[in-house]
Amino acid sequence: MKFDHVNLTVANVVETSTFLKQHFGFSDAFEDNNAGMAVLADGHGMHINLMKGANVSYPKFFHIGFDMGSEAEVNAMYDRLKTSGMDISPPTHASWGSYTFHFTCPGANFIIEVECAPEEWS
Questions:
Q1: Beta carbons within 8 Å of 32's beta carbon, 6+ residues apart
Q2: What is the pLDDT of residues 27-54, one digit of tens each?
Q3: Are residues 118 and 77 in the same domain?
Q4: Do both 38 and 90 map to the same domain?
Q5: Which residues lie across from 41 on neighbouring strands?
Q6: DSSP string of the chain, one letter each residue
Q7: Which domain holds residue 7?
Q8: pTM over 0.70
């Protein structure tokens, strides 16, 4: 058994889809993605389903995370997002050991974490 997909409700499917494709390497899983629903593929067998909804609210600590593998890769992603105009705080070493930063995904009301785990977790 493998974890196949996650379904996220967002205010703006097109904006969220475009952002995830541009910055996190997702692609359209289907040709008929639209403003009401989009299914994105990550190239490793995982999918994110984006569905349009109003007044979306996620629990306080809900987020999706992307492991970058190294602090240099986290810094490169941070620089890329800042250059694109995102207003985000720089990466820090979290109390649990990872090197990380968080931000609210454009077009959505969920948090994205970009991180790398400490070497001793490998």
A1: none
A2: 999 999 999 999 999 999 999 999 999 9
A3: yes
A4: no
A5: 27, 47
A6: ----EEEEEES-HHHHHHHHHHHH--EESSTT--SSEEEEE-SSS-EEEEEE-SS----TT-EEEEE-SSHHHHHHHHHHHHHTT---PPPEE-TTS-EEEEEEPTTSS-EEEEEE--GGG-
A7: 1-54
A8: yes
